[in-house]
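> tool_call: predict_assembly(chains=two)
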Amino acid sequence: MLSAGARRTVKAWTVMVLVFLYAPLLLVVINAFNTSRTFAFPPSGFTLHWWSDAWNSTGMWTSLGNSVVVGLGATALALVLGTMAAFAVQRYEFFGRNTVSFLVVLPITLPGIVTGIALNATFTSALGITLGLATVIVGHATFCIVIVFNNTQARLRRLGTNLEDASADLGATSWQTFRYVTFPMMRGALVAGAILAFALSFDEIVVTTFTAGPAVQTLPIWIFGNLFRPNQAPVINVVAAALTVVAIIPVWLAQRFGGDPATTRI
Amino acid sequence: MTLAAPTSLTVRRRAALAFLLVPPMAWLVVAYLGSLAVLLVSAFWTRNSFTGAVVRTFTGDNIARVVTDEVFRAVTLRTVGVALVVTVCCIVLAVPLGLYMAKVASPRMRLVLVVAVTTPLWASYLVKAYAWRMLLSPEGPLAWGTGYTPGYGLTATVITLTYLWLPYMIIPVFAAFERVPDSLIDASSDLGASDASTLRMVMAPLVFPGIVAGSIFTFSLSLGDYIAVQIVGGTTQLLGNVIYGQLVTANNQPLAAALSLIPLTAIVLYLLAMRRTGALENV
């Protein structure tokens, strides 16, 4: 049992770290309503004007559309590949099982710039492919596999094999067991994995920069391109505030579906 | 029939395993490891100095330049230094928090805190870096509230990277504290150990693997970052900026590839060093 003094100290520290984590996000939301064009603090007044400006920004909508296409494509690929890998690792004993897990996790362990440059070199110098949405989807799918893999694997481990064994003993084929026993029990984990994979793809900028080429802009690329333009600052602030509030959705949804947003990326 | 059944079962199981394993492994080996191999090889290519096109002839010039160039060395040292400082800051912030979450907070409070530290992880990276740009600006809230701001530069970069990667440290450290049995802590204090002794001799060895797991992320992510430093770093250049500059501005893909072997090597060395401590085996 820790002493009362030690408990108070770590509690105060916790409050301080939470302030550190949330104060910047709060500031983003406040500044989206700040009338000052330079966003001097304290805010000079409250306005909704920037929100209508942002709504009418065509660049924002085009890049948002691209981000959604990339997110859906990468999530679909990651869902299939990540689930297969998770099944193999959780339901079979084979030589090199740890290597498979390691290989799946590697793309989010190595710095994004290494992955980005490697894919860029492969697409342009080695294969001679023109960069575009398709190359971005390939890049994103590579690091989204681990998100689906982690969620599905955790669920399969928790489920155990008793029900699957019972199903097999009662004469079901492997496909029937999967279709009627395993799949219904792991649907939630798949949905959670898909949501979190989409969220990761939606926010990614480094690999995107190196695989998108100059013609294609996703939302993060568009934001970054406009970040240093003073006349675009109000619109950027609104998009930033909207994204901050929207970020709660994947965490909340994934938790509802029994996923684990806390540990899937770590 | 009875003799044939087990064999055919094994064959079918093997076929099923192959069916499950081949597509994801093909993807990761071909698209990912294949790309890393191309990266490694292209570091030894050169380019036509006139057209900028990549020429596939073998040369060690890029590697030699990366190793000997003074500017590259300075940037490498600065980047590794930033990555280490960021990692230490994350540890300092995360350890008391993890202790509170796992061993002091009520179960209900614990759940709230897990969600509270996880949500910023899923908030947009760019928005978070941009938030620090606003916070630290000369007209921003920090200067208004305290009359002081470090301004844009190396300090701002360290603060922002610490902010960005902190959840990656908190979650494994919290998980490690949660695995420390309460009975050990009670036994330690019953036997007369002070809080400091319990922390140092009972908890620290058990929490260390969690810190190592978190530090791999904070170190690796800091090494490769070049966006946050552009947003809050002023004129500060880190390795990522130099690599990006060689690829995009100077259009020298082979040199960019050679430079990106530096963070790759640093990560591998870091992983090997952490492996020697034995911490990775329990993660």
